[in-house]
Amino acid sequence: MKIRKQVLFGIASLSLMSACGQAGPVGGPLQPSTTPSQQPSTNPSGEPSSQPTSQPSNQPSGEPSTNPSTSPSGSPGTSPSPSETPKDVSVIEETTFNGDIEDDTGMPLDGVTVQVKSLSAETPYLLSTTSMGGTYVFNHAPAGILLEVSAIKAGYATRKRVVVLKSNKQGDPNANKYDFKSALYALSDKPEVIAVTPARQATNIAANTGFKLVFSEPVDRQTVEDNFVLRVQAPETLSIGATLNTGDTIWSKSAFNLSWNADDTELELSFRDQKQLPTDQDTAKIPEYQIALDLAGGQIKDKSGISRSSNYFKVNAGAAENSSRFTLQADSQKPELTGLTAQTAENGGSNGDAIQVRYSEPMIYYTLSQTLAGGFSAQVSEAAAAHGALSASSIANNYKVTVKRAGVIIVNNQSWGSAGLGGKAVFDTMDPSHKSVLLLPSNPVTNIYEPGDVVTIKLDSTVQDPAGNSMNSSELEVAGTAS
Asked: CA–CA separation, 241 vs 390, rounded Å?
């Protein structure tokens, strides 16, 4: 392997230029000459000739040999030249590296552009070559610094490796062998996700977060949209008592607004109004979710019809995965009562003397697998309205009603579920925000209150939201005027 002494090389170059009456550049990288000033050495050791050339050249010493001594048999005959030479480094040791390139069926790939780029700001370096016979080779690459090696071919997903080359003074052709094959690095012409938001294994993500998928090539929109799904990654029992099981489907494309870029390589999904993922107030009980592409048979296709049915996500240097995981942030927001509307039978209220009670946040989550709300563990005192095993009449006992007419109390702190009122408490299905509860009378024409009466609702218990947050005990009352 060569040892290039940059300082001595610069002095020798300036001396030769001075002898020929030419001014040489001082400082900055030298630019490679388009015509080498000397033929590559046939000396198998690769050492430069001791005879100086009669013409000065800006070409760095050590121009790649057409037959490197460490090149494996059958590798490309000509190694590329660096587009930038190292700077501000007094000693750089050079070496050779090579590798095999295959597709994901194990077949050798020709015509793959292999690019090597220095990741060191102090040592800029950029080379490229093209694979022949399923192999590639580079000569005179810098040893001991961080390099990014990329394998690029049209119609295939790009693969990258980050390496540090050994000096390899022994000339071992396998000392710096970096293949692009196997499950980790083989190139694939099947569409795959190469970037995802939220990032793989991201944490502390908002419950109403947006999603973004970036594909390796233009894809067929419909196959991707139909197969998009959010699932539970691992079982979790929430604070409200509900259990989310592994594989439970939470949402599909129907919960989202979808947007594609012009060439169909990027899909963005944003939750529709009042849609989100279930989370919890207890960090130890927050579910882990997965983004997957297998809801409708799992066949996602590119524009030419080539399909992929597994291992959709290749977003890091590891093996491809069937899904991408993430975890939500906790929800510590307590619900509050924000208002009520008391409708009257006299003014044509559709439900007679019914009361709509409004909360500050959704009090129920509707998902594709199950409905989640306070009281899921059959505790009436935790429920805002009826669901599951909890009846509408039992939940009505949580709501105490007071009615004043012209300053006189005519109903005094009476349970909405009592014999006198005989009412029910249900979620208002006409409210898309899921923040409202309807208190319905047993008989729609029952005269509980009249227009102008002041109606007050006081909760008998601190009910929970779906994340398990209980209301503040000091904020359980709200009033309004009947209309």
From this structure: 13
Q: Which residues contact 454 (CB under 8 A, 6 or more apart)?
A: 403, 404, 405, 479, 480, 481, 482
Q: How many residues does the chain have?
A: 483
pTM beyond 0.70: yes
Interacting residues of 458 by C-beta distance below 8 A, sequence separation 6+: 399, 400, 402, 413, 476, 477
Neighbours of 155 (CB within 10 A): 12
Respond yes or no on whether the N-terminal peptide bond of residue 198 is cis (omega within 30° of 0).
Answer: yes
Q: Which residues are within 8 A (CB) of 134 and not within 5 positions of it... i.e. 6 or more apart?
A: 100, 101, 102, 107, 108, 109, 110
Which residues have CB under 8 Å from 404's CB, separation 6+? 410, 453, 454, 456
More confident residue, 36 or 474: 474
User: Could you give the C-alpha distances from 366 to 81, 155, 388, in angstroms and in order?
Assistant: 61, 41, 13
Q: What is the pLDDT of residue 96?
A: 93
Confidence of residue 363 (pLDDT cuts 50, 70, 90): very high
Structure-block tokens of residue 473: 């005990």
Beta bridge partners of 164: 146
Contact 166, 97 (CB under 8 A): no
The C-alpha atoms of residue 457 and residue 416 are separated, in whole angstroms, by 9
Quick: pLDDT tens for 61-113: 333 333 333 333 334 444 444 444 444 443 578 999 999 999 999 999 999 99
| Residue with token string 């090579």 | 98
Residue 362 near residue 434, CB atoms below 8 Å: yes
pLDDT at 91: 55
Token readout for 55 is: 């013409």
Task: Please give the distance of CA 125 from its chain centroid, rounded to a whole number.
Answer: 31
